[in-house]
Write a structure and sequence with these properties.
Length: 200
């Protein structure tokens, strides 16, 4: 289920510009852009969860976000834009010379809901490739893939295997142990798609 109120083009534009300015300021060790609550629309000031994904030449350069809302959406995007640039443990921090070529994508998440299933085969049947983001939880370990990951891993069994590995578990754990599974959807937009929309 998508968010009841989708973002307007102006709101998307605001968040993309906020993310870029936040990253540029952080990389140059400058204070982050301030947010004037009186200038924010209700959707941007309402608690919202987001992921910010950075790519360079089509390759992942950083991706960090929150699965549940705990602060205003604009604040959430600002925080995770900086974290994706500087704090993703899989990558070295973004450098000033990379900024011009960096592409930013923002995913606004719906509230995750539990996915009930009985057997591993049942779980495969219930997943919706290309639609659902998936969270796996095993005790204190947890990992997620955004719906966009289905584009690179379209097979549900392989998708779950990679997600188990991301969680720090053996890839076939989902076949041998009943894990907690949650799903969510996203409203996704990027600088590239926004540029294309403005030109069309």
């Amino acid at each position: 289920m998508m968010p009841e109120q989708r973002l307007t083009d102006d709101e998307r534009d605001f968040l993309l510009k906020l993310a870029r300015q936040s990253i540029e300021n952080a990389v140059h060790h400058q204070p982050l852009p301030t947010l004037d609550a009186t200038q924010l629309t209700p959707v941007l000031s309402t608690p919202g969860a987001s992921f910010v994904t950075l790519t360079l030449g089509g390759m992942l350069r950083g991706c960090i976000g929150a699965l549940e809302p705990y602060q205003g959406l604009a604040e959430d995007v600002r925080e995770h834009a900086v974290a994706a640039a500087l704090d993703d443990y899989r990558f070295s921090p973004v450098t000033p010379k990379e900024l011009a070529s960096l592409e930013i994508e923002i995913s606004r998440l719906t509230q995750p809901v539990s996915l009930a299933y009985v057997t591993p085969a049942d779980l495969l049947e219930r997943l919706r490739p290309g639609v659902d983001g998936v969270i796996l939880r095993d005790g204190l370990r947890r990992a997620t893939f955004l719906p966009q990951v289905w584009e690179k891993i379209p097979d549900p069994a392989v998708f779950l295997a990679h997600l188990c590995e991301k969680m720090g578990a053996r890839p076939d754990l989902w076949q041998h142990k009943k894990l907690d599974v949650m799903i969510y959807q996203v409203e996704e937009f990027s600088e590239a798609s926004h540029r294309a929309g403005r030109q069309s």
